[in-house]
Amino acid sequence: MASISFRNVTRRFGNTIAVNNVSFDIADNEFFCFFGPPLSGKSTILKMILGLEMPDSGEILIGGKPVNALSPAERNVAMVFQNLALFPHMTAEQNVRFPLVERKVPEDKIRARVAAVSEKLHIGHLLHKPPAQLSGGERQRVAIARALVRDPAAYLMDDPISALDARLREETRVELKRIQRELGHTLVYVTHDQEEAMSIADRMAIMENGHIRQTGKPSEIYDHPESQYVARLLGSPAINLLALNNGSAGAGTIDLGGLAVPAGASGIGIRPEDLKAEPWTSGKAGTPAKVFEVEPLGGYTVVTLTAGEEKLRALMRGHPDIRVDTDVALSCDPRRIHFFKPDGLALAPVQSGQ
Ligand SMILES: Nc1ncnc2c1ncn2[C@@H]1O[C@H](COP(=O)(O)OP(=O)(O)OP(=O)(O)O)[C@@H](O)[C@H]1O
Question: What are the domain boundaries of the chain?
């Protein structure tokens, strides 16, 4: 397996800058995810790693060696194009063998490789069965074995499970994460699903318009977004973003409880799970708001609130005793508030020294 690095890589298509001066380092054996909206440049990055697209400028390194001049075959990187669905007319074993048979790998090598992958993925006892006789989870393990049966320097996957239904998608991403960790493959993964990216990646890069806006562990990026753009892309329901009206006197409609606002801040962000809404009682601290709608989701409830001109969302555990059109008091742990400048970049909170 190998590390993968870009150094100031740019790729243009006519007037479109698909990838704009991008640099990153993916470590050996890392599960790395590119996440961003459609047309942000994710697939073009994968194609340049693979050697199907050439950069206009910049350098690409695999295993520390420059590969700009190497053909796809010489780079030994495998793209998993197809989604992780099995061929129904083949047994599990025929499915797993397929990528090697297609590449005319000698039979003894195929046998050895299928045996090795089957042992690692614990599917040896399933190999004689057709997909129809496998459970959903078993089918996904076999499909992943087929995707991983080659032994390249790194695997690339472009939205491989988006075609599956929601339940199977959840199962498959857990399997994939576990298997990647067990096998220790470098895996570069593209998705436009924020939950998938957050749950699956060791580290991720957030893309916008050909730029990487932030790179890091999903939890670090979620807790410390460097811009409003990144803050908004991660989390469901989305972060509440509010304009600051008059500096430290108050944040629009949210009482900041005397929190010092950093100089230059023009807006704040509060994650729905950090916003507390409690039944209003006179004399209670907090910003008055009205309950607009309540959405029970089973384990959680999303409460939409109106405070002045603003609509805010709070994510609460279980089934809170909150009714539509009643008055509530809003509060938030001030340490969980994000501050942003007019250009959308984040500001560090003022250190109180306490
Ligand atoms: N072969 C091409 N010819 C012309 N323009 C291209 C080509 N490939 C990509 N682009 C353009 O480059 C930009 C980035 O596209 P890319 O496919 O890399 O984005 P993406 O983030 O993978 O999108 P999606 O999630 O929709 O696959 C887009 O504006 C796209 O139209």
Answer: 4-228, 237-347
Residue ranges around ligand 1 (CB below 6 Å): 13, 16, 18, 36, 38-44, 192
Q: Tell me the one-letter amino acid at 345.
A: L
Task: Work out the pLDDT band at 83, boundaries 50, 70, 90.
Answer: low
Which is higher by pLDDT, 87 or 230?
A: 230
Evaluate if residue 122 carries a pLDDT over 90: no
In angstroms, what is the span from residue 51 Cα to ligand 1's centroid? 16
Strands (DSSP E) along the chain, which ranges?
4-13, 16-26, 31-35, 57-62, 65-66, 77-80, 154-158, 187-191, 203-208, 211-216, 240-243, 267-270, 275-279, 287-296, 300-307, 310-317, 327-332, 338-340, 346-347
pLDDT at 283: 66
Q: Give CA–CA dist 114/110, Å, rounded.
A: 6
Q: Which CATH architecture has domain 237-347?
A: Beta Barrel (2.40)
- Of all residues in the chain, the percent with pLDDT exceeding 70 is 91
Determine the distance separating the centroid of ligand 1 and the alpha carbon of 44, expressed in angstroms.
Answer: 6
Q: Which atom of ligand 1 is nearest to the CA of 43?
A: 22
Cα of 135 from ligand 1 centre, angstroms: 36
Quick: pLDDT tens for 289-346: 899 999 999 999 999 999 888 899 999 999 888 899 999 988 888 888 999 999 999 9
For residue 198, the CA-to-ligand 1 centroid distance in Å is 23
CATH number, span 4-228:
3.40.50.300
